[in-house]
Amino acid sequence: MFLQFLYVSCTIILVSLFIIYWKLVRPGKRIYDILRAQGIPCEPFVPLFGQIHKLYQYKKQNKLMNFHEELCEKHGMVFVFGLGSYPRLVIQDADLIAEVLGRAHGQNYQKPTDLSARLKPLIGLHNLLISNGNEHDRARKMLNPGFHFKNIRSMVSIMTAQTTKTIDTLLNSCEKSINLEKELSLLALTIVASSAFGENFETNVNARTIVSEAFIAALDAIVTRSLLLIDQMPLFSRLPFWGKDIIDKGCEKAFQYVEQIISDRKQGRTKNLCEGADILDLLLQAVDSHGEHFNDEEIKQQAMAFVLAGHQSTGDLTVWIMYVLMTNPSVLLACQDEIDRVLPNDMIPTYEKLNDLNICESVIYETLRLYPPIPFFVRQCIQEHTIKTVNHQYCIPVDATILVNTYLIHREEKYWPRPLEFDYTRWMRDPVTGLKPKLAHPYCYLPFASGSRSCIGQNFALMEAKIILAMFVQRCNFELEHKNQKIALDVRIVMRPKFGLFSKITRRR
Length: 509
Description:
Blueprint: H1 2-37, H2 52-60, H3 64-75, E1 78-83, E2 86-91, H4 94-101, E3 109-110, H5 113-123, H6 133-143, H7 149-153, H8 156-171, E4 178-179, H9 180-197, H10 199-203, H11 207-227, H12 234-237, H13 244-266, H14 279-285, H15 296-327, H16 329-342, H17 351-354, H18 358-370, E5 376-381, E6 385-388, E7 393-396, E8 401-405, H19 406-409, H20 458-475, E9 476-480, E10 489-491, E11 495-497, E12 502-507
Parallel strand pairs: 2-8
Antiparallel strand pairs: 1-2, 3-5, 4-12, 5-8, 6-7, 9-12, 10-11
């Protein structure tokens, strides 16, 4: 009886080990071997874990970017490291990035399946952020008109109204020290959600709690689980541990809220706050080439993805802008002088006036260079492809995942003179032609990625950031609370100050 039990146990263990090897080890090792055989520098192959332990140690010290910088110094601009069971082919050379993202070969790549699996509980699979193939192309064509400058122009009034409310609240606050990271995140959330959902968000006192607290807590839990490799193990990923309850509850609350918003708009109980159509109107009205509308599930998931991407990235961008202004007095003074000239007497910005804020625009672009809110993006090869430069060529196998570190590319001296210096003048438009200076390479500046998967909402985000920058500088004096407060990079899906950004804010005039 004992021998029979031992035999069964051994069989189960061997079968389990074989499944683990076949499903989780073998696919990554195959890709690793193909890339290494081409002479690409590689970190040691560690089954299931890769370099995740070392990466986690750096992250605990708030030095995640140091991990990537050291790998670049060690291996150069093309190398492989392991993120759990998934090898990552890092490409920091703009010529090679152009081969991956450009129109000629972009169809050979898609958003990785492991990224889709992680974000599925939060926003589903049927949205622009993680959908692929024909589904993505269809949605992109249907939604593109909504992000035309005419539509974004109609949202300026929402952006200025919400920014005014936030500034009034902060100036009347009794708090001596204000965490701008928190306040600007909430402002970005209010702007994007009001632009997407209209008065449902504006008038619902629970909306901020539902979306900002539950939704963002779920996002943080997803990132933590990915670092612990939970999502790579199907059995463990279903167990009610390691933040799964936070994800389930947060996503349920957010989806229920969005479902109610869609129902209210369909039945005419609410209206948008824009001068034209808002995002929800667009989702309800858009049709594809066959005259088909988005179904209810697609509308819900597209809305969720828009709020997630728009809120997180723009909120963190404006935080970094304020950090730059408070640590570069000459930059702040230049913005003040321009704003006082273009928007005198506390004039509310209009679309036309915003176009005259050349310095403010340049400050935003330079902030995006040094502090890109989305510091990485990844692409998975779906069709074998050879990428090449003058000196090198690499065969990219199917299922290989390419990682592009925009934070480091934006600081690469090959493409940027004085790369670590904040110099907004490198972006100043020519006063006669209105054109910005030419980049050293079309693919050396990628705050919104590029190609067919570039951020559809980038013009919305840039407009929002310019309004927030202009109105805060116009009405407020702000300085860092404690000159030596620690500003550490918290790199998750987005990059933000880990400990917040505390400031004293007073009325300027």
